[in-house]
Amino acid sequence: MNDITLSMLISIGPFVALLLIGFIFGTVAQRNHLADLEQREAELGDVILTTLPHADGERGELVTGSTVVAYDFFRRIAVTLRKLIGGRFHMHENMMMRARREAVLRMAEDAQGRGAVAVHNIRLISSNLGDSGTAMGGCEVLAYGTAVWT
Amino acid sequence: MTDDIILTNMESVPGRTIVRHIGLAQGNVVRAKHVGRDIAAGLKNIVGGELRGYTELLEEARRDAIRRMTEDARAQGANAIVNIRLSTSSVTSGASELYAYGTAVVVE
Q1: What is the fold of A3-149?
Q2: What's the complex ipTM?
Q3: B25 to chain A nearest CA, in Å?
Q4: What residue range is the signal peptide (chain A) (predicted)?
Q5: Is B93 helix (H, G, I), strand (E, B) or coil?
Q6: Paired strand residues for B49
Q7: What is the pTM of this model?
Q8: Cα separation, B67 vs B27, whole angstroms
């Protein structure tokens, strides 16, 4: 091994290592999260979730659920490259939908834990933290609605 | 959240009748990220997933914004807030504003 290849290895080594770590941990985390979501959604049972603005009930109360998600290193680089050619950002779509499911689930679990039968008028909003566009500091998803007791 | 003022994001309060509309009630909080949490989040940025520190930080801040809105409503003589909306925006890099607003009303 000559000096040039060695110095190249040293300079791009950490980058490649981060890419690998990001890819492996990110993929595992994603798979675990999806399995976790499936399970909790099945356990949630029969809480009614709607976006309807009016509902009958004895009493209502605001409930919220939120999460901040971020890309792993590999996917952040992949997205940066994807920006050069444009098109659909499948990874970003998947991440945002997972975050939304998580936020809705947390809200619904909170409502159910307090004995509510439904959550109405659900709104979902998301905002970028930190550097805009890169999702460097993460992206926040918030779900809120009115838990209703009958 | 406070237990004496009813909060809902619907246009009416379930099980109650609105007798009087008072007006806008609002509350905001601007929170900057925290160095300790930033470092943890920085590491998390390599492996991806949820940034739990930020989730908690924003949740606390949102609770504060809602409390300020509730205090605003109480000061105006309301006992409920309807049609509440929540929003988040980053004001400068590294700081987020959480804003809660709704219509203060009197219910029976």
Answers
A1: Translation Initiation Factor IF3 (3.30.110)
A2: 0.87
A3: 15
A4: none
A5: coil
A6: A70
A7: 0.86
A8: 7
